[in-house]
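Internal tracking record. Fields below are filled automatically when a chain is submitted to the structure queue. Please do not edit lines marked as system-generated. If the sequence contains nonstandard residues, flag them in the REMARKS field before resubmitting.
Queue: standard
Priority: normal
Entity type: single polypeptide chain
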Amino acid sequence: MEFRIERNALTDAVAWAARVLPTRSPVPVLGGLLLEAADGRLSVSGLDYEASARIEVEAETIRPGRVLVLGRRLLDICRVLPERVVECAVEGSRFSLTGGGARFGLSVLPFDDYPALPVLPEVLGEVDAALFAAAVSQVVVAAGRDDTLPTLTGIRLALDGDAMTLAATDRYRFAVRTFGWKPGRDGISADVVVPARRLTEIARSFAPDGMVRIALDGGSAGFEQAGTRTTVRLFDGRLPRHGKLFAMTGAVTAGTDRVPLLAAVKRVAVVADGGSPLHLTFSGDSVLLQAGYEDDVASQRLPAVWDGADELTVAFNPGYLMDALGSFDAPAVRFELMGPGQRAMITGRTADQESPYRDASAPASVHRGADHQHLLMSVKPLL
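SYSTEM-GENERATED OUTPUT FOLLOWS
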């Protein structure tokens, strides 16, 4: 095996594939990257028991072949090579990299114990890469981090016709984003749970100006874009359905500009030690933020629209509220409040809607192909 390739192209390909390599593994070869050169292309592949990644780039093939080498060591070498053309070759039991006067050699790993790369599941359709990445980043803030409840550390990916829904919950927060995608055929329906950390890495790795092909089967999900392909194992469980939770019957509503509110939450929360709550009191045409106890207190008042007859004070975990407000990209947010100690719905409001603070449609009514983002929060467990 022998090939020539630009140093930056090699580094980017190795870094992309190395994302899935396990930090530690009882099987040493799982720390390896498989390099295959043929017909003017170089493919770099990696896998562990949860995910796989494969990328193809252009390379001048001198002698076709393949080699398995330690992935993270290869990445370290690629990052320090001079920015020149790199000549790579297998020489006996060693893989050599030469460029700009520098030369490195890596031991070759045996192929015998290296598993076969998973096959990409059936492709069901495609979605805009930038839209998909934004949606994942918006719902992942609510994903659980307790590995003893693995399903809650995942993101629900549901397909229904031309609508895709992503959802996540840690029992105190429930984030949902529904948006349009392009199914490959009529009648597509699916409902799976993808590990949140893996899906976040995958969504961020794709070029934002293209489309991502979505592939699913009973045990894995696949994502593909222009020479890159990755798969990930699905969780066996299902996330709780959010329909009844999001039915905010009898809620009173309030609205305010998102960016000033986020800045005020960060400011006032400085005195909220030990997980103490941040209180929002809505009344008249304002909202008062308050936090702290005894001598260490902070407050700030902001303009707001309030639909209630009487003032209402609700408590939030300040960190959760900052995560929620930071996940929206709309200029304003709308609160639906059930009362003190009860669940609260936060929805983004965009400038082209009838009002920056009001929405005539019910939060739970998601129209096929439409774009909605909702985040439910509570100081008590929702589930």
